Amino acid sequence: MKILAGVGVFILMFLILAALFSLPVMLLWDWLMPSIFGLREISWVEAWGLSFLSALLFKSHTTIQSN
After folding, report:
1. What is the mean pLDDT of residues 39-54?
2. Secondary structure tally for the chain: helices H, strands E
């Protein structure tokens, strides 16, 4: 039962963090892109996907080794 509760908490935290990180993307896109480029507004799920894709593409994977 504790494992099930832990999984539930993990899923809830994931959804909260996903909403927090994708909401600014959605708001900025819906505010700027339709008026500048004539693009349509996006949904929360599309904003989350855009945030996830940009994190994959632009995240730095360099490591610094100290001696």
Report:
1. 92
2. 2, 0
